């Protein structure tokens, strides 16, 4: 049984990205895994680079939604990063979450995690995700983490606040959740 934290870097609850991860969560939950989801819709400030965390027992001095997430993060073995594609990259919310993890590092070493990447975009075609995937691959390797899969759902758009995402991506995400090891 895996303990999973899903971090959603979209401001749109029930938007495309949220809908995609919900399919994964359904599959994972049905298969007996324990899943907690956090929507980064409180204000996650950027890392100030003050270095206080490295001197005070790994506590970030910024008091915001991230304080609740540190505890959840420590408790899981699997981290799901989810984001809409914003200007060919991950959202600023998700990037701030990642930057703020610096607080828990010791000599640039991080607790081990398995990871997934779930993204949605307006454009069709894999090339749209190239920069985001390149960043994801690079940073998880640097942190010593292990990629367990990605779903890159292109061709999403939105009409009157409704999520529009192709059914086959939802099935892919559900299948990943079902077959999580
Ligand atoms: C600020 C902003 C930037 C975006 N940049 C891109 C982009 O570079 N490429 C793209 O294909 N779609 C882009 N999109 C579209 C979103 O990635 C897409 O609609 C996504 O599915 C929205 O997810 P959500 O419903 O979770 O918010 C952008 C949307 C916004 C609001």
From TrEMBL:
GO MF annotation: an example: oxidoreductase activity
Record Gene3D superfamilies: 3.40.50.360
Xref: InterPro entries: Flavoprotein-like_sf, FMN-dep_NADH:Q_OxRdtase_AzoR1, FMN_Rdtase-like_dom
Domain NADPH-dependent FMN reductase-like: 3-131
Pfam families: FMN_red
Name the record gives this protein: Multimeric flavodoxin WrbA
Organism: Longibaculum muris
């Amino acid at each position: 049984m895996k303990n999973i934290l899903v971090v959603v870097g979209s401001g749109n609850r029930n938007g495309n990205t949220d809908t995609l991860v919900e399919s994964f969560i359904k599959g994972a939950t049905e298969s007996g895994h324990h899943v907690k989801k956090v929507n980064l819709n409180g204000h996650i400030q950027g890392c100030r680079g003050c270095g206080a965390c490295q001197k005070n027992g790994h506590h970030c001095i910024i008091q915001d939604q991230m304080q609740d997430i540190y505890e959840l993060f420590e408790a899981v073995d699997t981290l799901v990063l989810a984001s809409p594609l914003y200007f060919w990259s991950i959202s600023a919310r998700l990037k701030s979450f990642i930057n703020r993890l610096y607080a828990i590092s010791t000599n640039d070493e991080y607790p081990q995690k398995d990871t997934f990447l779930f993204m949605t975009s307006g454009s069709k075609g894999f090339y749209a995700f190239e920069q985001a995937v390149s960043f994801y691959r690079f940073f998880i390797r640097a942190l010593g983490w292990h990629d367990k899969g990605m779903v890159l759902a292109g061709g999403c758009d939105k009409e009157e606040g409704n999520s529009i995402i192709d059914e086959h991506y939802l099935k892919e995400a559900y299948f990943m959740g079902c077959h999580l090891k």
